[in-house]
Design goal:
By secondary structure, this protein is mostly helical. The chain is 75% helix and 0% strand. It is globular.
Length: 293
């Protein structure tokens, strides 16, 4: 079995991505079945086997303000992972293609595992934290309430037998979940953690977990953006609602960035992170086949 370092490096060789952007602009050469087979090998890393003792020592070196900023980022990741684990089942159940359902079954497993990593990190490093307290409106809507409504819309359309409603619900869910939450917010969040390690030389096990999560999410993003692009090609009537969703989420980028960086006792580069967020957003729009207006 591959160890965690081997798994991360091997996945980079399968679907390479840069430090800031993961591009799926060209149609992926990996089918859902191929991605499923990759996940069987690389998606089985165990959060419980990552030794967090070094990070626990580093945590004691932070002042209260620095701890609070790091908790913000970890809490939002944890809440997001729990939420997507809960809602993705609707997307999988409604997916007409067997190979896509097979891949999505691995994605649900991996999302739960990501939540487990952050849960353990709070328990063993940060201490007891009320993660829900960090769900300010800028994050609670996109990560929980609105995403849950997207999943419920799929469920209603699935049980009513209205194929047109179901197809639209699948497109909007894919945009919200894969393009916005995973492809913009999470990808930008990874940069926060990488900057933290680069600046301080601390929290190597947090970064190890983030790199493994990022490798899993790379498969999710390739599959999700491929599905969204396919949907928009087959259903031109979905283009306008999906574009509107993209634009609505772009308008929230400054407020979401402000929350993480106010205050900024860790001294990370706020402007750089916000620029990366916009770049990720624009990249996802291009991958969906949507030209910027």
């Amino acid at each position: 079995m591959l160890n965690t370092r081997e798994a991360s490096c091997f996945f980079d060789s399968v679907i390479p991505f840069g430090r800031c952007l993961l591009s799926t602009a060209a149609h992926t050469t990996k089918s859902p079945r191929q991605l499923y087979n990759i996940a069987k090998h690389l998606g089985v890393w165990d959060p419980a086997k990552i030794d967090l003792s070094e990070d626990k020592a580093h945590w004691q070196m932070l002042n209260p303000e620095q701890r609070e900023q790091l908790i913000k980022a970890c809490a939002l990741f944890y809440e997001g992972e729990v939420s997507v684990s809960d809602t993705l089942a609707w997307f999988m159940l409604a997916m007409p293609d067997l190979d896509r359902r097979m891949f999505l079954s691995t994605q649900i497993f991996e999302e739960v595992k990501h939540a487990e990593f952050f849960e353990r990190y709070f328990q063993e490093v940060c201490g007891k934290v009320d993660t829900a307290a960090y769900l300010v409106p800028e994050y609670k809507g996109v990560l929980l309430d609105e995403l849950r409504q997207r999943g419920e819309a799929i469920g209603k359309a699935l049980t009513s037998g209205k194929n047109g409603d179901l197809s639209m619900a699948l497109s909007l869910f894919a945009c919200h979940y894969m393009a916005v939450v995973e492809g913009t917010m999470a990808l930008t969040g990874y940069e926060f953690f990488e900057d933290l390690l680069a600046k301080t030389g601390m929290f190597p096990r947090l970064l190890e977990g983030i790199k493994l999560i990022r490798s899993d999410e790379g498969r999710h993003l390739v599959h999700g953006m491929d599905f969204l692009r396919e949907q928009l090609e087959q259903h031109p009537e979905h283009v306008a609602p999906v574009r509107e969703l993209f634009q609505q989420q772009a308008a929230s980028i400054p407020r979401r960035t402000e929350f993480i960086f106010t205050p900024n006792p860790l001294g990370l580069d706020r402007d750089r992170i916000q620029q990366i967020s916009y770049a990720n957003h624009n990249q996802r729009m291009r991958e969906a086949g949507l030209e910027q207006p």
